[in-house]
Write a structure and sequence with these properties.
10 strands; 260 residues; alpha+beta; 5-stranded antiparallel sheet; 28% strand
């Protein structure tokens, strides 16, 4: 009887051990599964964090590039505005003189003379004086002048002294007479009337007009003063009685003559 009881106790103990071992294995398996799940989740979170970090870096790089592009666009816009302003300055026309055609006479021999009133204008387009009346031979009227053209960079920048071409009217003559026989308008070497009203004439212009032909024949000396070209011009037009003509000087160019 005792032997049976001992065997039963042993069997019961073995059963308890077996059950405990099984539960231990079961619980360890569950624990391992949980740990694996945690590791998988941690890996997923790490991967997601890495992806987020990469997106943030890309976003920051794109933001920086957008800022750079914005700065470039602003710089280009400023350059375009400066270029447009420079182009406008180059194309500005200044009214310098007005010619009124007073009358025309035809002699018995068929020769024609034309009577004119020539008046230089101020910066507002108003006559500096009443104007002088002259008579020329022919229907076509030439206005001879000396012109100083400055380098475009000075014109584009609106330089105080060299921001526009300058002109000195010499004489007016007709197609049927020699230029030397024309009516004088200014004395060579003297300041143009439009500049003569200054109480303190600028020595820069005085020097250019006084030594005009020396500078015209010495490009290096002229360039030192910002001069691009110095020469004579004589635009002309076949004028009609009763009409008025304007002489204009482009900031970067030469003289033009047109009907007002």
């Amino acid at each position: 009887m005792e032997r049976v009881t001992s065997m039963l106790k042993t069997a019961a103990l073995v059963g308890v051990v077996v059950i405990a071992a099984w539960w231990t294995l079961f619980l360890r398996g569950k624990l391992n599964e949980h740990e694996d799940a945690l590791e998988a989740r941690d890996a997923e979170i790490a991967e997601r964090d890495q992806a987020i970090g990469e997106l943030e870096r890309q976003s920051a790089a794109q933001g920086a590039r957008i800022s750079e592009l914005g700065a470039e666009v602003e710089a280009k816009a400023r350059q375009i505005q400066a270029l447009e302003a420079a182009m406008r300055l180059l194309k500005i026309d200044h009214r310098l003189a007005r010619i009124e055609v007073l009358g025309r006479d035809t002699a018995d021999d068929g020769s024609v003379t034309t009577r004119l009133r020539f008046a230089e204008l101020d910066g507002q387009g108003e006559p500096l004086e009443k104007g002088r009346e002259v008579t020329v031979s022919g229907k076509r009227v030439y206005v001879e002048s000396l012109v100083v053209k400055f380098d475009d960079s000075y014109v584009e920048a609106g330089d105080f002294l060299r921001g526009t071409s300058v002109c000195l009217f010499r004489r007016v003559f007709g197609e049927d007479q020699k230029p030397s026989d024309g009516a004088p308008l200014e004395v060579e070497g003297r300041r143009p009337r439009v500049y003569a009203g200054d109480e303190t004439p600028d020595p820069f212009y005085d020097d250019l007009w006084t030594h005009f032909w020396r500078y015209a024949n010495d490009p290096e000396a002229a360039a030192e003063r910002g001069v691009r070209a110095m020469h004579g011009e004589a635009p002309f037009a076949e004028v009609e009685v009763g009409k008025t003509y304007l002489l204009e000087l482009r900031a970067s160019g030469g003289l033009t003559i047109r009907v007002e």
